[in-house]
Design goal:
The chain is built from five helices and five strands, in the order βαβαβαβαβα. By secondary structure, it is of the alpha/beta class. Strands 2-1-3-4-5 form a five-stranded parallel sheet, sandwiched between helices.
């Protein structure tokens, strides 16, 4: 469960997921859990561009990014590297079925790796843990 110290409604999430039904499912679950989904990106390139725009407005700046890996135009690894150059403190949680990239994702700065299909309780706990550090 979310830590009582965290104000869930003030936690901004950027979802990066090329599978639109999964993206919509994540959005719905997170919003029902009290999070604010500030935007969604369908690929790694779009994720970087949307992140650049979102950080210009402190109300929309993502606290956490949920990052898929296998996407068109740019992988989650490549997008994470670019986003981390913009803000080394951003909390990125990988959500991928490709467990072979787990070590690399953590090595480049992801705070967690959740294997798909995602356990929703684990995703919520991962977000909470990321923000507690």
């Amino acid at each position: 469960m979310i830590s009582e110290n965290l104000k869930v409604s003030k936690i901004n999430i950027l979802i990066v997921e090329d599978n639109i039904p999964t993206q919509n499912l994540f959005r719905r679950i997170l919003e029902l859990s009290g999070f604010r989904v500030v935007d969604c990106a369908d690929n790694g390139y779009e994720a970087v561009e949307k992140y650049k725009k979102l950080i210009r407005n402190s109300n929309d700046k993502p606290d956490v990014i949920l990052m898929d890996h296998h996407m068109p135009l740019k992988t989650g690894i490549d997008a994470t590297k670019e986003i981390k150059k913009l803000n080394g403190n951003v909390k990125i949680i990988f959500t991928s079925g490709d467990t072979q990239i787990k070590k690399e994702a953590i090595a480049i700065g992801a705070v967690d790796f959740i294997e798909k299909p995602c356990d929703i309780a684990k995703m919520i706990k991962s977000i909470s843990n990321a923000l507690a550090t």
